[in-house]
Amino acid sequence: MQKREITILGIESSCDDTSAAVIRNGCLLSNVMANQEVHRNYGGVIPELASRAHQQHIIPVVDQALKLAGVLPQSLDAIAFTCGPGLLGSLLVGNAFAKGLALSTGAALVEVNHLQGHVLSHFIDVPEQQLPHPAFPFLCLLVSGGHTQIIVVRSYFDFEIIGNTIDDAAGEAFDKCAKVMGLPYPGGPVIDQLAAQGNATAFQFAKPRVGGLNYSFSGLKTSFLYFLRDRIAGNKDFIEAHRADLCASLQQTVIDILFDNLIRAVGQTGIREVAVAGGVSANSGLRRRLADESARRGWKACIPELRFTTDNAAMIAIAGYHKFLQGATTGLDVVPYAS
Ligand code: KG4
Ligand code: ZN
What we know:
By secondary structure, the protein is α/β, with parallel strands linked by helices. It has 2 domains: 7-130 and 309-325, Nucleotidyltransferase, domain 5; 138-304, ATPase, nucleotide binding domain (Nucleotidyltransferase, domain 5). It is built from 9 helices and 10 strands. The chain has a 5-stranded mixed beta sheet with strand order 3-2-1-4-5, with helices on both faces. The protein is globular and about 65 Å long. The chain starts with 6 loop residues before the first strand and ends in a 14-residue tail after the last helix. The site of zinc ion (ZN) has 6 residues, from helix 3. Residues 15, 144-146, 171, 174-175, 186-189, 192, 278-280, 282-283, 310-311 line the site of 5'-O-[(R)-(carboxyoxy)(hydroxy)phosphoryl]adenosine.
């Protein structure tokens, strides 16, 4: 008997990227993204501007995703959308659009947690490519602009957070330190690029330790700020003269902090299948470090393709697919949540 085809449209609008993707039986048919340049010069996302830009982008982005996939709206089995966490005004755009489309097409509605989407990005299949999927149970270091967590993933739906940041996220540390150096938002990718030409041992910054497997990044940001303030007092061109070294040293510090706990988490749980996910997992230094630690320690490492690291709808569609298979659909009264 032929396997039934299940086609899911995913919609992601939790922060500043509007994205739509179509997945059929777990395999990606399209993944379209509209970034919002409007925030670049503000040093961060302006929620009001983000909601407006989502309103402008959502129809063309969904339309293009369906066309690229060669799928008619009426043939969708389900529409999966990010329900939270994120910026409420941004989430509302995707939420309302998904409901309208579900109503008009008769497709089921599936609400997806953004963080679950990041973790499940490891299970996206791509035509004519063999992407490795982690085996359960695995550890996932989820590092993004809003979250830094170590998660034991026992199944598609059984997650246990065993480490969490008590203040800033790793991506936030990159973005805030970049702002201090006068670099545009988002700072992470810019720091990554500049770090490639710098010396990672040029400068030392604080590596705060908090209890258990938890993280703290606000101390790093403060230490970076005070360090620069002192150096600039003696040389007003200090940042410009040392930009690459500053970026390389800062990146190294963030990676060291992340891996200290990750290595301890492997020791404590005995789980040697280790994945990373979220926007910061695009960082080239972090990707190298995971490969190195895995080779040295005998871990089996899983790193998503770059396009599935930062916010994207493919990860929402794959999470929606697995929820749909479980019958986990939702009603039209579902409301987004910010945290
Ligand atoms: O997952 P994501 O797109 O959105 C959230 O859910 O937060 O992550 C965005 C974060 C930003 O802080 C951005 O600076 C960071 O990911 N990021 C990077 C890199 N690419 C994105 N950080 C370091 N190196 C990168 N290459
Ligand atoms: Zn994200």
